[in-house]
Amino acid sequence: MNDRHVIETAGLWKRYDDVEALRGLDLQVPSGSIFGFLGRNGAGKTTTIKVVLGMSRPNRGEARVFGQSPFNSDTGVAVRRRTAFVSDEKDLYDYMTVGEIVAFTRSFYPRWRGDLEQQYLRQFDLTPSRGIKGLSRGMRTKLAMLLALSRGAELLLLDEPTSGLDPSMAEEMLQALVGHVAAEGSTVFFSSHQLAEVEQIADHVAIIDRGQTIVAGALDDLRAQYRRIQLVFEGNAPDVKVHAPGTHRVRRQGRVLTVLSSSGGDGVIEELRGYRPSSFEVSPVSLKDIFLESVRTED
Amino acid sequence: MLWHKAWLETRWRFVSALLILTVLAGSNVYDYLATQRLLPQLNATTQIPAVEATGLAGVIREAIEIQKDFRGFIWYQAFRQNLTQMGVFFAILLGCGGLFSESSKGSALFTLSLPVTRKQLVGARAGTGLAQLFAVAMVPPLAIPLLAPSIGQHFTIVDALAHGVCIFFAGAVFFSLASFLSTLFGDIWRPLLIAIAIACVIAILEAMVPQLGIYRVMSGESYFKTGSLPWAGFLTSAVIAMALLYSAAETLERRDF
Fold this sequence. Notes:
- The complex is a heterodimer of chains A (299) and B (257).
- By secondary structure, chain A is of the alpha/beta class.
- Helix content of chain A is 32%, strand content 30%.
- In chain A, the strands form three sheets. Chain A has a six-stranded mixed sheet, sandwiched between helices. Chain A has a four-stranded antiparallel sheet with strand order 11-12-10-13. In chain A, strands 2-1-4 form a three-stranded antiparallel sheet, covered by helices on one side.
- In chain A, α4 packs antiparallel against α5 and α5 runs parallel beside α6.
- Chain A is elongated, with a radius of gyration of 22 Å.
- Chain B contains twelve helices and no strands.
- In chain B, α4 packs parallel to α8 and α8 packs across α9.
- Chain B is elongated.
- Helix content of chain B is 79%, strand content 0%.
- At the A-B interface, α2, β5 and α3 of A face α1 and α6 of B.
């Protein structure tokens, strides 16, 4: 564990009854990054965020936020004082008004930013006297974001921040987030299904599947390193195991063998040249391709 | 601000409890006149000599004897019955809810993301609830000395306060029981129903084993009969309530959300 990483987990295991939500999850979130956390439904994204915030205890493994344990009563409070969180459902206290929940939340954060509170009240068109119960999902999301962004937090943990929002509202939220990060220099860790929005704002990503990290790194590095190598054979593609470093996925479909590699395509081509493919093609891949290839279940 | 949150969550339950119990206590004052008019018709029962009055007849005779004067009537009707029975219900109602039941509404994650410990959350909730219970225990009995002069009767404020303290201490046990059950079940209904069921079982057991005595503490029977407060009952109630609240805090500390 080192202090260049705001969040670090090592070998996290979490079991709920008969479901293993996390299976040895390793994660490093660099300080100052906008970190997109991708995975299918049930991959373990929300569980990871809950563990990082100390809401759930792992069965095994370690998690550190700002170098401290979120599970210890005292250090957990210190971690949460420097952290803002927006849950997937954006559920807040229905019995409060907008003004009441702002005042309530403000009381816990010594570094609360009154200027940002006023700015986002205006920008998001939130009326302090309005009851939370009567707010639409979009307005609740805006309020949850206001409460998160005004805390003066060094780390923003956002679980599906734009889920359920229409495209224009989602765009508004993302712009607010990017603007905030640019001005304040916070680290953002957000989970999402929306690959386009991750590509739009994230500089680092991790893809998890079945409770394990399967891809992680700087987005530019991933784009530079990942390649899809497609080899076409005269007859059926050979049933081979590819040992070249960085091989992520090998798929056979008739005469075509497709390999996803995280270290360019040269090693794979070199290894498979002996099988005499009639042609091969190396192409760059998008984040969507990496995601889909990484989480695709075996045929 | 955690206190304020707990207050906002429970204020309607608290106001309902305060209003209903105060109206009950006040209505008991005015029931006295009507009961006094009925008493002569019960002469046949009251004529049974005390030594012959056994079983149900004995209970009825004792009830009638106690209620012949205003102080006895108020103790029997208000403190032994209405305020005790409804007091238990409202103590349980005030104790239900809290962080775990928030998880069914979804707002628990927001609460848990705040820089406070779970023990602080339980403490604020319990402190607010016990303060509300104290008001619910003390205010309705005070309606009795306030209204008694309007029917030409007298009831001392000291007696009302003493009975209020009895309701509070015993009520705290039921409040804490509901608080503890609320850390085991993620909704408000199961803790409520289970706590009421336990209260009924205790009432039945107490009828068979009077030494159990929590309802006797709550009704202030020893104060009414001898003028002395049930200090041992207070101490026992306080210890049980604290043990239940401690268990609630420990259970919540270990719980995954």
